[in-house]
Inverse folding.
């Protein structure tokens, strides 16, 4: 009957270098894909609030009034949903973890004013709804519209429906976040956000 | 008949990484009855479906458990895909299979370590976890996370693995094989370890079936049952056969998991050879309307997922039933008649995951 089978392994590891690393003296190597923390490029953010709605951990708060983008670092679970869903691709996932600490860090970024069609300010909404005030919004000049459907295809919220056969253009006001992507993409420039 | 004593076991106990409470009714040193109670770690994750869109719900569901997180992500995605009638590309199915089997390897290595820790074999515990690190590194390289992966999404997977990295995965695992074998031999052959496991906590085949045991607990009692035989993933192309042991004791359950470890390495090697080129996801449009039930073989056994949508972007219900939930009745059965000193080992051999159970 075998006893002390582990002996060889244990003795062997006496002469090997340790399997653990002397952190933080020896730095950790990050992989390219490591999901460490979310970073924002403030210059392209349009404060649409899609990231806030998509975040499963409610870590992001976007305010159109104060033009701020806020992330609670301890709340974020690094799922990457915000990065995937941002229509302007201004969020990126960076490899380094945020520094350990006892404080719940909230990072606030100011979004510079952009020469974008001004949208009515959204009421401060809690939870998942960052929908702008209903009634305001997107209009299509159906006289010059060619019903190409580019706006519908580019809408991050699937709010626009274009029916080519019946020459109909409709927007679901509750779904539209007035990000202005459709306005940008429209080849005939027949969309406006009022 | 001796005097009866009740000994509380848990929710805080050195062998329990997670809280479950057992009231052990003892006569002298022998357990005659067990009353389990759970409810210490309920987080109400399923309720979040009302607030999180179905696409993001996947990331919530995968956080049910830190060990079988990939499987939970897969289960949630696949049940929603089923309800929406989405067909996932074949490459995505292969990638899911590879990641799922990697999870099984790291889960079983973790469990072997915990078992060693349970009977006080600290060096064995450390070495099992040392090897597990290599698997976690592979995860970090391919998914970006060591424990929570967030790579499964409705419609496929979010990240591809290139051919060189796939080769690296299978090479690393095959190189680890002799090292793993050195450790698993200790579990299977060392006399002092066998004294703690052989003949302890026997669960007969009839009992296993009767009590609805799943996973390695059922297979260790000779029940031919493994959800990998029936459907999801690329298993049907990899020639999968479940690992069965007949004895039904702790040793048999350990052996099943050890054999599965090596089998998972084989499955991954084969999947890396066979993986087809192609897209890794399909676009998902619209809302979930309808319902779907799916079963998946997690490292701990069969898990069950139910998704129901009502035509909005929020699901109406998402239900997950996890393997530990199913195995608690078998645990109670095994514990009756055992020695008090064997209780920790027996609790460990069902590989309990209480966070999973309570969600
Ligand atoms: S989704 Fe992108 S553009 Fe919209 S608020 Fe968030 S970061 Fe800004
Ligand atoms: S990574 Fe996930 S948890 Fe973190 S802010 Fe983005 S969506 Fe929220």
């Amino acid at each position: 009957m075998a006893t002390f089978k582990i002996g060889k392994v244990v003795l062997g590891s006496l002469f090997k270098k340790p399997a653990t690393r002397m952190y933080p003296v020896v730095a950790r190597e990050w992989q390219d894909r490591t999901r460490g923390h979310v970073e924002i490029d403030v210059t392209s953010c349009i404060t649409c609030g899609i990231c806030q709605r998509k975040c499963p951990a409610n870590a992001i708060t976007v305010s159109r009034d104060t033009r701020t983008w806020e992330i609670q670092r301890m709340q974020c679970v690094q799922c990457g949903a915000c990065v995937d869903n941002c229509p302007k691709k201004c969020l990126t996932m960076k490899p380094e973890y945020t520094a350990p600490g006892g404080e719940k860090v909230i990072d606030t970024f100011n979004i510079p004013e952009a020469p974008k069609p001004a949208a009515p300010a959204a009421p401060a909404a809690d939870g998942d709804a960052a929908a702008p005030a209903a009634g305001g919004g997107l209009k299509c000049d159906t006289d010059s519209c060619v019903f190409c459907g580019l706006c519908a295809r580019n809408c991050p919220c699937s709010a626009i429906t274009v029916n080519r056969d019946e020459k109909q253009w409709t927007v679901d006001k509750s779904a539209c976040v007035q990000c202005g992507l459709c306005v940008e993409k429209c080849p005939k420039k027949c969309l406006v956000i009022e | 008949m001796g005097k009866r004593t009740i000994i509380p076991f848990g929710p805080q106990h050195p062998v329990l990484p997670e809280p479950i409470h057992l009231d052990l009714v003892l006569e002298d040193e022998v357990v005659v009855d067990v009353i389990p109670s759970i409810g210490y770690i309920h987080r109400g994750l399923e309720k979040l479906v009302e607030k999180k869109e179905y696409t993001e719900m996947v990331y919530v569901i995968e956080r049910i458990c830190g060990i079988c997180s990939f499987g939970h992500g897969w289960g949630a995605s696949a049940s929603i895909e089923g309800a929406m009638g989405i067909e996932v590309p074949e490459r995505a199915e292969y990638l899911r299979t590879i990641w799922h089997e990697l999870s099984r390897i790291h889960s079983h290595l973790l469990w072997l370590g915990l078992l060693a820790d349970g009977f006080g074999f600290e060096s064995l515990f450390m070495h099992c976890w040392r090897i597990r690190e290599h698997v976690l590194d592979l995860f970090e390289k391919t998914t970006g996370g060591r424990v929570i992966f967030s790579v499964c999404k409705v419609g496929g997977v979010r990240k591809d693995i290139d051919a060189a990295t796939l080769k690296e995965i299978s090479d690393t695992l095959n190189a680890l094989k002799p090292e793993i074998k050195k450790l698993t031999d200790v579990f299977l052959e060392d006399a002092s370890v066998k004294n703690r496991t052989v003949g302890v906590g026997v669960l007969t085949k009839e009992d296993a079936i009767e009590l609805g045991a799943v996973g390695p607990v059922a297979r260790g009692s000779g029940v031919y049952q493994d959800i990998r035989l029936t459907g999801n993933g690329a298993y049907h192309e990899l020639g999968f056969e479940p690992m069965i042991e007949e004895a039904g004791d702790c040793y048999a359950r350990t052996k099943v998991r050890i054999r599965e470890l090596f089998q998972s390495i084989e499955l991954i090697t084969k999947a890396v050879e066979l993986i087809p080129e192609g897209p890794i996801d399909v676009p998902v449009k619209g809302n979930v309307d309808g319902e779907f039930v799916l079963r998946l073989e997690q490292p701990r056994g069969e898990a069950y997922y139910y998704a129901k949508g009502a035509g909005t972007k929020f699901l109406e219900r998402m239900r997950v039933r996890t393997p530990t939930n199913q195995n608690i009745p078998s645990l109670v059965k095994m514990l009756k008649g055992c020695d008090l000193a064997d209780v920790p080992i027996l609790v460990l051999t069902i590989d309990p995951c209480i966070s999973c159970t309570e969600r």
User: Anything to note?
Assistant: Chain B touches chain A through 35 residues (CB under 8 Å). The first strand of chain B starts at residue 4 and ends at 9. The mean pLDDT of chain B is 87.
